[in-house]
């Protein structure tokens, strides 16, 4: 039996209040990580419940509020985590937003917000996690891309562009950080059943929704846990010779 263990690892997951981030945090807890820092925009009942669930799986949990597009919040999250557990092995830059406006309805503010949250938070998370990891034995950084970063997406102009940026940052980071024993990979999910996708789909007519699902060869949305399983692979030593890569988790959809 192959056992994917995170036993000696300290992990940070950003934007983990719900959806994919939540599933990844629970997966890391289940895999036995040594310390689990859960970031969310705010601490509320939902995040307290998540922390309790992770603790019930045996994890030591740090729950921290913070806006990952702000440098001071990212630094604080990383400093607090590394001071608490004297280590940081895995940084998962999951925080992200999407807006469902087409080209003509995307304002300059919409553009700035989506690009800032999705790209800047990835840049900051990668930069400050790597700054610690490089002097402490390396690590694995996982960035949340999207199939939209490869195909351009079909809803809004800002989202795919921001995720293409995340995939480019991943490739840059992999090349620059390999010398320090740090791997950088990205996840590129397709349509995953979370509140983000529900918000994106709520304006669609029933026939449009049907067409979106029909475009997925496997004929269904993905489950957040199916993304978390890949995050576990990239986080663990099973992927020790993989860096600068991204994996599509799309049920076979490539366009
Ligand atoms: N659901 C999908 O189909 C899908 C597909 C591809 C990629 N993704 C990506 O996966 C990630 C998670 O998305 P999800 O589907 O779980 O959506 P979600 O809306 O359920 O979760 C996103 C989380 O990020 C948090 N967040 C947003 N801005 C933040 C900030 N500045 N600082 C800290 N946290 C912040 C939100 O509060 C939320 O908890 C995102 O990066 C998203 O772009 C999702």
Keywords:
255 residues, alpha/beta, Rossmann fold, seven-stranded parallel beta sheet, 9 helices, 46% helix, binds nicotinamide-adenine-dinucleotide
Q: In CATH terms, what is the architecture?
A: 3-Layer(aba) Sandwich
CATH C-level class? Alpha Beta
Assign an overall shape: globular
Compute the separation of the termini in Å: 36 Å
Residues in helix, %: 40-55%
Low-confidence spans: none
Number of domains: 1
Structural class: alpha/beta
CATH superfamily: NAD(P)-binding Rossmann-like Domain
Quote the average pLDDT. Answer: 97
Q: SSE string, helix = H, strand = E?
A: EHEHEHEHEHHEHHHE
Going across the major beta sheet, what is the strand order? 3-2-1-4-5-6-7
CA-based gyration radius: 17 Å
Count of helical stretches: 9
Largest sheet, strands/sense/barrel: 7 strands, parallel
Count of DSSP strands: 7
- CATH topology value: Rossmann fold
Query: Approximately how much beta-strand content do the residues carry?
Result: 5-15%
The hetero compounds bound to this protein are: nicotinamide-adenine-dinucleotide
């Amino acid at each position: 039996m192959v056992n994917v263990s995170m036993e000696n690892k300290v992990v940070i997951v950003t934007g983990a209040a719900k959806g994919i981030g939540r599933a990844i945090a629970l997966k890391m807890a289940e895999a036995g990580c040594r310390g689990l820092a859960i970031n969310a925009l705010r601490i509320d009942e939902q995040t307290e419940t998540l922390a309790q669930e992770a603790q019930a799986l045996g994890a030591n949990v740090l729950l921290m509020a913070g806006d990952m597009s702000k440098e001071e919040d990212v630094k604080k999250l990383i400093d607090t985590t590394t001071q608490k557990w004297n280590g940081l092995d895995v940084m998962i830059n999951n925080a992200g937003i999407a807006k469902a406006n087409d080209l003509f309805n995307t304002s300059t503010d919409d553009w700035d917000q989506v690009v800032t949250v999705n790209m800047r938070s990835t840049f900051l998370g990668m930069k400050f996690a790597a700054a610690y990891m490089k002097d402490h034995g390396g690590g694995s950084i996982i960035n949340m891309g999207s199939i939209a970063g490869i195909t351009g997406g079909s809803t809004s102009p800002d989202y795919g562009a921001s995720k293409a940026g995340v995939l480019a940052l991943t490739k840059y980071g992999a090349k620059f950080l390999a010398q320090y024993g740090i791997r950088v990979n990205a996840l590129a999910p397709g349509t995953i059943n979370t509140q983000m996708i529900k918000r994106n789909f709520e304006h669609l007519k029933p026939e449009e929704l049907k067409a979106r699902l029909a475009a997925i060869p496997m004929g269904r949305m993905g489950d957040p846990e199916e993304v978390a399983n890949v995050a576990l692979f990239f986080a663990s030593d099973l992927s020790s010779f993989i860096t600068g890569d991204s994996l599509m988790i799309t049920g076979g959809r490539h366009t």
